[in-house]
Amino acid sequence: MHTSIHGQWSSRLAFILAATGSAVGLGNIWRFPYITGENGGGAFVLVYLACVFLIGLPVMMAEVMLGRKGRHSPINTMSILARENQRSQIWQLIGWSGVIAGFIILSYYSVIAGWALAYIPRLAMGTFSAVSDLGSTQAVAEFAGGQFGALIGDYQQLIIWHTLFMMGTMVIISGGVQGGLEKAVTFMMPALFALLLILLGYALSTDKFIDGLLFLFQPDFSRALTGQAILDALGQAFFTLSLGMGAIMIYGAYLPKDASISFTTTMIVIADTSVALIAGLVIFPLVFSNGLEAAGGAGLAFQTLPIAFGQMPYGAFFGTLFFVLLSLAAWSSAISIIEPAVAWLVETDKFSRLSASLLCGLGAWLLGFVTIFSFNIWAEVYPLASFGVEKTWFDLLEYLTFNMMMPLGGLFMAIFVAWFMNTATTSEELNSSPNSFGFKLWLFLLRYVTPVGVGIVFLNAVGVLKAIGIVS
Ligand code: PHE
Fold first, then answer.
1. pTM score
2. How far is C-alpha 369 from the geometric centre of its chain's CA atoms?
3. 125 alpha carbon to ligand 1 midpoint, in Å?
4. What is the pLDDT of residue 31?
5. Residue 336 beta carbon below 6 angstroms from any ligand 1 atom
6. Buried-state track 315-325, b at ≥16 Cβ within 10 A, e below 16
7. Tally of CA atoms within 13 A in the half-sphere of 89 that contains its CB
8. Helix 261-289 vs helix 300-311: angle between axes, to the nearest 10 degrees?
9. Burial call 179-199: b when 16+ CB within 10 Å, e when fewer
């Protein structure tokens, strides 16, 4: 049995809170509504939910299990487990890909989290209270859009907020598991949830609540989902659950031996999915009642929620609190994004936890400038234009991590666990008999559903299926 040199969660609950803290973040409140809006609602949500429960949950169990068995950073965990199972060291690549993905994700995650920070003073100063005097919904929408446009158009402001967010991340992560990570998450998650429920109450009072509800949950099968939309749903499922890049693996490495993996992961998945769906139920009624575009893109949450706060009683107070909590939720995700890299550096014995944290933070901070400029001075720069791809640097980094590195990382974890580890070991770690129904179902989902599902979605999205004539 291995032990972790980085410490352990103090209890099962601490792990659930920390992993939920990792899962719940910008992915739920910023990304889920906007990607759902861009992909037309209902049918997309259905595919997303299928990906979460049929692929995400089993893969999360596998990833936590790998972590707890190896008890090291994902790179060393994969190396140890490959050796113990007499497999090639090539499996280490899963860990490396996770570390690289972590840097890229943190670099843009911090910039977007900076938007949330930037909205705190705006709400506190009552900037949005003005919307209730504007009269027409069009004027309100223009005001909110203008505020957001002014923020992302000004790279100096973005740099300041990005820097602040990154510094905060480094402070918490250098504190380590129990000192930093655990303390930070215990009170934030419940508070954010409570505030979302208040917002839901407000959304219920608008006259477009039903429209929002139908948009989210009524699939429109007359509009076929494209291969790209399905890949978006899969990528979103992996991202929102923090899967496939080692974050959940390293949190699993700190999980006490006696905690049940299936129970804890199920709780985490349910909590994460509820937050995303509630965020959607808050945002879409607001979109429709204020004449905004559901497909409005990356600014959707930042343009709709302040309007709600501007119009509701005590809105400045609740609005400030909301963006504080959103920033905190982003923080508790950010620390897990970079933890695989920090843990690995510490394991090389060449770095203290503090110097490893500073180094990783500095790297991601510098890379963040690419994202910052993508919204202003590089907004028209498309690096792959000669291949006919109209994507900014930020779009490309987002695509690379969301749609490629995370699903593929998760796919290979599933393959390793289900095909290359023996079932006696895995069933023991999951604390269940190899013949029980639950275990068999889990293995079946990992062995067949995940590879076939991820494989098809992937080949379809990159156009291979089309090229060989399987789909038209
Ligand atoms: N799951 C987090 C969110 O939804 C983001 C994240 C991705 C965290 C990858 C860790 C690893 O915001």
1. 0.92
2. 20
3. 30
4. 94
5. yes
6. bbebbbbbbbb
7. 2
8. 70
9. ebbbebbeebbeebbebbeeb
Residue 213: the pLDDT is 95
Instruction: From 103, 248, 336, 413, give the residue whose CB has the most ligand 1 atoms within 8 Å, as the site to mutate.
Output: 336
Expressed in angstroms and rounded, the spacing between residue 334 Cα and the centre of ligand 1 is 7
pLDDT of residue 177: 62
Taking each continuous run of H as one helix and of E as one strand, the counts in the chain are: 24, 0
pLDDT at 181: 62
For ligand 1, say whether the CB of 22 is within 6 Å of any of its atoms.
yes
Residue 95 alpha carbon to ligand 1 centre in Å: 17
CA atoms within 13 A on the CB side of 446: 26
**pLDDT at site 206:** 86
Pick out the chain residues at pLDDT < 50: none
pLDDT of residue 188: 75
Task: Tell me the CA–centroid distance for residue 49 and ligand 1, in Å.
Answer: 17
**8 Å CB contact between 306 and 144:** yes
Q: Give the per-residue pLDDT at 204.
A: 92
Q: Is 242 in the pocket of ligand 1 (CB under 6 A)?
A: yes
pLDDT score at 107: 97
Quote the pLDDT of residue 315. 81
pLDDT digits (tens, 9 = 90+) for 422-447: 899 999 999 889 999 999 999 999 99
The Å distance, Cα 333 to ligand 1 centre, comes to: 5
Report the distance separating Cα 319 and Cα 128, nearest Å: 9
Residues 6+ apart with CB under 8 A from 238: 56, 59, 244, 402, 406, 407, 410
DSSP 185-214: HHTHHHHHHHHHHHHHHHHHHSTTHHHHHH
Type of residue at 244? G
Q: What is the pLDDT of residue 405?
A: 92
Q: Which residue out of 34, 48, 189, 337 has the highest number of ligand 1 atoms within 8 Å of its CB and is therefore the one to mutate?
A: 337
Q: How much is the pLDDT for 439? A: 95
Between CA 41 and CA 114 the distance in angstroms is 27
How many residues can be counted in the chain?
Answer: 472
- Residue 413: its H or E element: helix 406-420
Q: How far is the CA of 238 from the centre of ligand 1 (A)?
A: 8
Q: Report whether residue 403 contacts ligand 1, using a CB cutoff of 6 Å.
A: no
Distance 27 CA to ligand 1 centre (A): 6
* Ligand 1 atom closest to residue 22's alpha carbon, by position in its atom list: 8
